[in-house]
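Q: Could you fold this chain for me?
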Amino acid sequence: MTEKKCSHHKSKKKKIIRRCCAGLMIFLFLALLAILIVWAILQPKKPRFILQDTTIFTFNVSAPNIFSTSIQATIYARNPNKNIGIYYDKMDIYATYHSQQITYYTQIPPVYQGHKDVNIWSPFVYGNNVPIAPYNGPGLTEDQANGGVWLDFKIDGRVKWKVGSVTTGHYHLHVTCSAYVPLGDHPGNGGIMVGNNAVKYQLSRSCDVSV
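A: Sure. Below is the predicted structure, expressed as C-alpha cells.
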C-alpha cells in the first residue's frame, strides 16, 4: 500500500513539472511572437551616415610603399526611427585607397542614439609609416600632385536595437563613405584654413550603410 502511495505521488509530481515546463514554453513562445509582431509593425530603418568634412594635416608618401597621413573626418549619424533607439557599440573607423587599408583603426566611443536623434563624431584617422602596395604609392603621389584623392572612409562596428524595454542582440554595422578629398596647404574650392598647413573642406557625402 505504501509503495502504491509513493508511486502515485511521484507520478503526480512529474505531471506538475511537465505542466510547468509546458506553461513556461508557451509563455516564452507568446513573448517571442509578440516581439516579432511589434518588430514587423515598427519596421526599423537603417541609420543614416554623412561624411560632412575632412581636414588633412599630413599626407606623405616617403617611399614607393610607405605612407603616412593624419586626417580628421567629421561623421554625421542620424536615427530615422520614431520608436526605436540604437546602441552603437565597438565602432572602428579607417581609410582605404583602391581597396587597401592605409590607416590604423580609430575607435569611436559607444553611444546610445534615441528616436530621431543625431550624433556627430570628429575622429582622427591616421597612420605612420604604413606599408602599402607598391602600385598604390605612385598612385597616391600622382593624386597628391593633381590636388586631390579618392578615399573610402569605412566604419565597422556592432549595433543593438531598443524597442521599449526590449533590446535585441548585436547586429554588424558596415558604413562606407566615398569622397574626393582635396589636398594642398592653400585654401581652394571652398577650403578653410584651420591651422598650419591644414585646410578643412566641406564634403557632405552620403554614405552606404548595411546592417
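A (continued): The helical segments are 2-42, 136-146.
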